[in-house]
Amino acid sequence: MKIGIVCYPTFGGSGVVATELGIALANKGHEVHFITYNQPVRLNALSKNIHFHEVFVEEYPLFHFQPYELALSSKLVAMVKLHGIEILHVHYAIPHAYAAYMAKQMLREDGIEIPIVTTLHGTDITLVGSHPNYKTAVEFSINNSDEVTAVSHSLKKDTLRLFNIRKDIKVVHNFIEVDKYAKAHKEDCVRSNLASPDQKILTHISNFRPVKRIPDVVDIFYRVQQKIDAKLLMVGDGPERDAAEKKVMELGISEQVLFLGNSSEVDKILCLSDLFLLPSETESFGLAALEAMAANTPVISTNSGGLAEVNSDGVTGFLSNVGDVNEMAEKAIYILESEQRLEEFKKNAFDFAQQFSLETILPQYEEIYRSVKVGIC
Ligand code: GMT
After folding, report:
1. Which end of the chain has the lower number of beta carbons within 10 A, N or C?
2. Is the distance from the beta carbon of residue 320 to the nearest atom of ligand 1 less than 6 Å?
3. Which pLDDT does position 124 carry in this prediction?
4. Do residues 358 and 175 lie in contact, with contact meaning Cβ atoms separated by under 8 Å?
5. Nearest to 269 by CA among 298, 249, 291
6. For residue 61, what is the enclosing H or E element?
7. Number of helical (H) and strand (E) elements in the chain, helices listed first
């Protein structure tokens, strides 16, 4: 099939999922066209089945806001016509589902019917999408997509609660490429640069937005390092990073906390981690937690949103109420203080992650593509 993928090309989870999906589809022989404003960060290997089309938005003094949706929908029309794209799969409703709907209408004028699959990722529903400024347009674009998927049961429930939805929403969980993490474990895992052999390594990866509750990450680690010799790796960048660096300094733990910035090779960081911290206010899924688990790393997280679908309480890690840093620190210490217990949790995390393998999830998307194509013909 010829599939057009629209996503945010940044380090956020939705862009990562869309990019990994496109690469996997291309490896299975589909022709994949990424249509975005930059080359997606994890798209580091273009191949004969992968094409990247950049959306340009011209600067003009009259524009206070650049009309990105217009540029995107025009580009979608042009690429569908030029390459014979058969399906548009848009990740993150705002503004991608809306732009795709406009493209569909424009193509219809030329006698071309293009099915649209919209995947909802989380904040496009829970934080941004349901805001009165966007709600009407988001609801309209969801209802006018040919198929809608959500990355967790929790997100599906939130979507049905927050919007007036007339469509069936299919849950297709996020996925990981199992082999990539196994390979990193064997080949690239050098702990000695970052910690001494008897130190435990805790890791947090995110876009450092307020929803991730970065101060809680630091507070949890502060409590843990009072009992366990440990290092904290902070991976990613965003608006909360500066304040976190300041807090780390004020707490006098700068020696133990490394801010590594954004990385497109998280597998090589996760392979040397003992525990992953994700104390988010909300997570529709928590892809970073799943990536950690695939790399044998148990997870200390909150119990909000879809996290309970990924992190099994008492098995692959623990789940606590949002903001309960004392409990999260206690659970972290409980796992880390016994070598045998840590090994058990690591194994459980790895085993549980296998149900989200690419091999299991990819056919679910292919089936959706086939059904929308048949629906249109
Ligand atoms: O977490 C973010 O702020 C980024 C956001 C995104 O759209 O890139 O992540 C959302 O989508 C991910 C991939 O499906 C999910 O794993 C994250 O849980 C979800 N984030 C939130 O719901 C806050």
Report:
1. C
2. no
3. 83
4. yes
5. 291
6. none
7. 14, 13
Cis peptide before 197 (omega within 30 of 0): no
| 285 touches ligand 1 (CB under 6 Å) | yes
- For 284, the 3-state DSSP assignment is coil
State whether the beta carbon of 91 lies less than 6 angstroms from ligand 1: no
Q: For the range 131-135, what are the long-range contacts, defined as Cβ-Cβ under 8 Å and sequence gap of 24 or more?
A: 134/94, 135/162, 135/163
Q: Is 12 helix (H, G, I), strand (E, B) or coil?
A: coil
Nearest CA to 366 among 214, 203, 172, 225? 172
Q: Is 95 in the pocket of ligand 1 (CB under 6 A)?
A: no
Q: Which of 76, 126, 82, 79 is nearest to 96 (CA)?
A: 76
Count other C-beta atoms under 10 Å from residue 193's C-beta: 6
Q: Which atom of ligand 1 is nearest to the CA of 206?
A: 1
In whole angstroms, give the CA distance from residue 200 to residue 264. 23
Please, what are the averages of pLDDT over each run of 10 residues along the chain (377 residues)? Answer: 95 90 95 93 80 91 89 98 98 94 97 97 83 90 96 97 95 92 72 88 97 98 98 97 98 97 88 96 96 96 98 98 98 98 97 96 97 78
Q: How many whole angstroms separate alpha carbon 320 and alpha carbon 220? A: 12
Question: How much is the pTM?
Answer: 0.94
Coil/strand/helix, residue 191: helix
Distances (CA, A) of 149 to 7, 134, 361, 369: 15, 19, 12, 12
